[in-house]
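Fold it.
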Amino acid sequence: GDTTQSGYNWALTGSPMDGLNVGIGAGKEENQIATLDDETFSTGFVTYAVGGLTLGYQMSEGNGGTAGETSNNVEIYGASFAINDNLSVSINAMDNEFDKTAGTANVTEETNGIGISYTMGSASLRMLTAETDNKGGVTTAKSVEHTEISLLLAF
């Protein structure tokens, strides 16, 4: 059988005013395999920065793939604040709704995280922690916690 796939993606971004960034994008992947539907993707975002504060929001959607499977609707939002030239903190959240097939309730995977970074010269010490509930759109999935500490050295 034919396993050929073709597709396209496009994005348009801009800064209509100082501190404001916006963008949209979309894509399509055409599947020639009988058990796969064509996949479509779309996204849009906005960020606004003023002083040391940056706010961001993004919506995305994905449909298609394995016939009869779920599609996804994603919302991501966050804020970061530069306390000074060296220290920054951030908080972020993502809701990924899995649109289930007929007769099954939709499930939202929820991820929340915080981060902090300290930069001195070419070295950055970073820490983040995040927790995810309903991982993969499964209500019986255990909550997943992730903590990471890293040291980045640039030469």
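The beta strands are 5-17, 20-31, 36-50, 53-66, 71-82, 87-99, 107-120, 123-133, 144-153.
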